[in-house]
From TrEMBL:
Domain (Helicase C-terminal): residue spans on this chain: 231-470
GO terms assigned for molecular function: ATP binding; hydrolase activity; RNA binding; RNA helicase activity
Keyword Transferase applies: no
A GO term from the CC aspect: cytosol
Pfam families on file: DEAD (PF00270), Helicase_C (PF00271)
Stretches with biased composition (Basic and acidic residues): 339-351, 592-605, 634-645
Protein name: RNA helicase
Listed SMART domains: DEXDc, HELICc
Biased composition (Basic residues): 621-633
Reaction catalysed by this enzyme: ATP + H2O = ADP + phosphate + H(+)
Organism: Triparma columacea
Top EC group: hydrolase
């Protein structure tokens, strides 16, 4: 891994404006992330078309925005700029969803904090046309929106001096149905793009099509995945579908899964089932999905970013979750750094007619239609691009439909060089899941593991990721009756009621409906009354986990913890110093029960360390059962155990 370069150093080498450097330091961004270092000089000085490609969460937004803003600041300060060019738009940024456009607009606001008088911005908002039009009339320097909104506000935009067109999350544009809008933008709104920038975490077939259509001899800036350094660890656990709720609840309850945590499901109903299950056990969970109004979705995400906890998300529309055969990558080089483009002229690759099809105008150009069958056009793509904050854990409750969507989902954690863990629950006996898992493993970087050869040496080995989590479901068998009981209470009717309640909440807190309620108080009363009636019941007694239900290793840990709190034993040595939240407990041979317990506490096995990974305690349980020890002893009194809580 290359040494990070401080922005101050880059600033003096490349001549970055003080205003931008001050904004970066206000955001506490001291070092440029690799894609940012790589992109700056190419976008800024070479001025050529660019494809930015690095994995999710590596800072691509700042990577294109910084040089684009610097370019604008330089030209705005140039003497002799015409008055018109001073009030017309210099750069447009296209995103596939309004949520992402909002997020990008807020990054832009932060970066222009000290130069907002020179660089003004506008996020195109169809629901607030008068304000959008007034900002455009004032001559917003940078305009952000979906391709659809650009076409909608076509006659209000002054793009005669537009120099840069950025297409962010380019891999989603066509599957969101923006092919035709992109044609309008590039043909009639900005017919001669001076510099095109395409940004993507995955290089699927759609990116290739767009690249051919919009860019001219682009430099492909591709920063190699540095996950071998171990920032994102990925595991999978094969479980019967019916046991997924059990695993999720127990892992969350026992702190095996750390929060903030995102749980991805493949449909809205499963999201609510998971939420209700967790809530019955006293665990709050938010839900976001495409059926929600955008402002409600944004509020839930904001709350999650502020408070953490569990967020249950579906990034698919219902019926979209069927696993698909995937398109092969178009084969861009894996090399780090700048790779030269191989094309001549915009819109057409020389000597290759592969993707070229006659469009409806009869012109010879690539068809801008999606390769993927999925059509998430509801204006959300929660598995992609959304910058959820400080997420420690991503759980794929359901396997996503493609390996690309897996990459985006797990990319919600381990962002900006931080660490994180992704756990995927694979349905036992599902051939689809098995096939997709192999496909995912082919695309993810392997997991480095240390294997002890003797006392002094170790060898590094690599396991495919996601790696199997060796966890014996028998360890949590004791929880089954609670979960099954609660699951029975999570009926379809309750799921629907919860959805309705959330919709009512949204209506009650809607700014737009406020005046309606003022004029029609009866409507407000009715909504409030219905809301109170459908309030869910939480079983408070289920909040606590009795000690006898804990896996054996954890019971020991609890006792040790209690001892330490009382000032006896344990000490630093016994403390869990590892930072990998997925952990398991080793099986010990020989020695007294007490000694074994201590060894077990000390030798907790962390999933990143060795091939001891995830040893189960069930062997010990068998040993005890055979010898009539512990809860299999004739003297065992479970009521005492319960009292120990
Ligand atoms: N130089 C930096 N130092 C520290 N944090 C940074 C830096 N640049 C960006 N970040 C943070 O990194 C996170 C990820 O950035 P960003 O959303 O731009 O990534 P991305 O590569 O576009 O991800 P995705 O592909 O998922 O859209 C953000 O929370 C951002 O605030």
């Amino acid at each position: 891994m290359s040494t990070p370069t401080p922005f101050q150093e880059l600033g003096s080498t490349l001549g970055l404006s003080t205003a931008l450097l001050k904004s970066l330091s206000r955001l506490s961004y001291v070092y440029a992330l690799p894609i940012q270092t790589a992109s700056l000089s190419v976008i800024l000085d070479e001025g050529r078309d660019v494809v930015l490609n690095s994995r999710t969460g590596t800072g691509k937004t700042v990577a294109y925005m910084l040089p684009v803003l610097e370019k604008i600041l330089r030209t705005q300060n140039k003497p002799g700029e015409s008055a018109d060019s001073g009030t017309s738009t210099k750069c447009i940024i296209l995103l596939p969803t309004t949520d992402l456009a909002d997020q990008t607009a807020s990054v832009l606001k932060s970066l222009t904090y000290y130069c907002s008088d020179i660089v003004t911005s506008c996020k195109l908002d169809r629901s607030n046309s008068p304000q959008t039009r007034s900002l455009l009339l004032d001559g917003a320097t940078v305009v952000i929106g979906t391709p659809g909104t650009f076409v909608h506000f076509k006659s209000d935009l002054n793009l005669t001096s537009c120099e840069t067109v950025v297409v962010d999350e380019a891999d989603l544009m066509l599957s969101h149905g923006y092919g035709d809008d992109l044609k309008v933008i590039t043909k009639s709104m900005v017919p001669s793009i001076t510099q095109g920038v395409m940004v993507t975490a995955t290089m699927g077939g759609d990116v290739g099509k767009l690249k051919k259509f919009m860019l001219n001899k682009p430099a492909v800036i591709k920063v190699k995945d540095d996950r071998k350094a171990g920032t994102l660890k990925q595991f999978y656990l094969t479980v019967p579908s019916a046991d997924k709720g059990l695993v999720l609840y127990v892992f969350l309850k026992l702190g095996v899964v750390k929060q903030p945590c995102i749980v991805f499901c493949n449909d809205v109903e499963t999201c609510y089932r998971v939420k209700l299950l967790l809530e019955q056990f006293g665990m709050r969970a938010g839900v976001v999905n495409g059926n929600m109004p955008g402002n409600v979705r944004r509020k839930v995400v904001e709350k999650f970013n502020d408070d953490g906890g569990v967020l249950v998300v579906t990034d698919l529309e219902d019926g979209e979750g069927e696993k698909e055969e995937e398109e092969e990558d178009e084969g861009d080089s894996d090399e780090e750094g700048v790779e030269e483009g191989k094309k001549e002229g915009k819109g057409k690759e020389e000597g290759s007619g592969e993707d070229d099809e006659e469009d409806e105008d009869g012109e010879d150009e690539p068809a801008l239609t999606a390769t993927e069958k999925s059509t998430s056009a509801t204006g959300f793509a929660l598995g992609r691009g959304v910058d959820f904050k400080r997420v420690q854990f991503v759980i794929n409750y359901d396997l996503p439909p493609t390996s690309d969507s897996y990459t985006h989902r797990v990319g919600r954690t381990a962002r900006a060089g931080k660490s994180g863990v992704a756990l995927t629950l694979v349905s036992k006996g599902s051939a689809d899941d098995d096939r997709l898992l192999s496909k995912i493993q082919e695309t993810q970087p392997p997991l480095p593991m240390q294997r002890a050869l003797d006392d002094l040496t170790t060898a590094q080995e690599f396991a495919p990721q996601p790696a199997p989590l060796s966890f014996d479901l028998k360890e949590i068998e004791g929880f089954r009756y609670r979960v099954d009981d609660v699951k029975r209470a999570v009926t379809k009717v309750r799921v629907v009621e919860t959805m309705k309640r959330e919709l009512k909440d949204a209506m009650l807190s809607s700014d737009r409906l406020r005046s309606h309620f003022e004029e029609n108080p009866a409507d407000l009363q009715m909504l409030q009354h219905d809301k109170n009636r459908s309030e869910g019941r939480v079983q408070t007694h289920l909040k606590h986990v009795p000690g006898y239900l804990l896996p054996k290793g954890m019971q020991v840990a609890k006792q040790e913890k209690r001892k330490r709190r009382r000032g006896g034993g344990g000490g630093k040595e016994g403390r869990n110093k590892g930072n990998d939240p997925l952990q398991s407990y080793g099986e010990e041979e020989g020695g007294t029960e007490e000694k074994k317990a201590k060894i077990s506490e000390k030798n907790r096995v962390f999933l990143d360390t060795s091939d001891d990974v995830g040893k189960s305690t069930s062997g010990r349980n068998k040993w005890k059962m055979k010898r009539g020890k512990g809860k299999w002893s004739k003297k065992y009194d479970p009521t005492k155990d319960r009292g120990k809580k």
